[in-house]
Write a structure and sequence with these properties.
The protein has a six-stranded parallel beta sheet with strand order 3-2-1-4-5-6, sandwiched between helices. By secondary structure, it is α/β, with parallel strands linked by helices. Strand 4, helix 8 and strand 5 form a beta-alpha-beta unit. It has two domains: 141 residues, HAD superfamily/HAD-like (Rossmann fold); 65 residues, DNA polymerase, domain 1. It is globular, with a radius of gyration of 17 Å. The protein contains ten helices and six strands; from the N terminus they run E-H-H-H-H-H-E-H-E-H-E-H-E-H-E-H.
Amino acid sequence: MKQYRAVVFDWDGTVMDSTHAIVTAIQLASADLGLPVPSGAIASWVIGLSLEAALYRVVPDLNAEQMPDFIERYRHHFFQRDLQLKLFDGMQSMMDELKERDVLLAVATGKSRPGLDRLLVNVGLDKYFYATRCADETQSKPHPQMLHELLDEMQLPVDQVIMVGDTTHDVHMAQNAGMDSLAVSYGAHDPDTLSKATPTFQVDKVAAMRELLLARV
């Protein structure tokens, strides 16, 4: 059985139960600017992408002049909710077990650096991760640059690292980097959508993710 020395996690919808808050913030910001309000399904599809790239896809009537105002309203609505957000049940204990086995942990997220740092401190995981990359620091998913930079920082070959995420953007980013992927279907993208992206592994619960990872590290 193949063994991994590091695990790279997406954040929203993978580690933290934040999908609903992101969708709600996009919808409320759309309403604030008098733009058509996207459905929950459409808004959740873009989770994991950099915010600006995501918004042009999910709110097609949005133009470049409106973008700064939209982002301000999005952040206003999201920050009203983000400190109440929680990790998925079983996530922190799994992280503890991985750390006990000297597995390197990393994050590759579509969040901004200030947004990720704020949440890492809030949930007490700021000391858990060896390296993190955010969408405002590098190329957005599914471009593999985030993973290439993390591999360089961890000084590991790609075949010793696995990417865990809840969207096809995560799976495709891993594929573009030549990295194995574990798709989790309890987040933003449904099981059938994830399956069509052909991840290396796919699970539907944190408990199943824990079992799979602990058997392979």
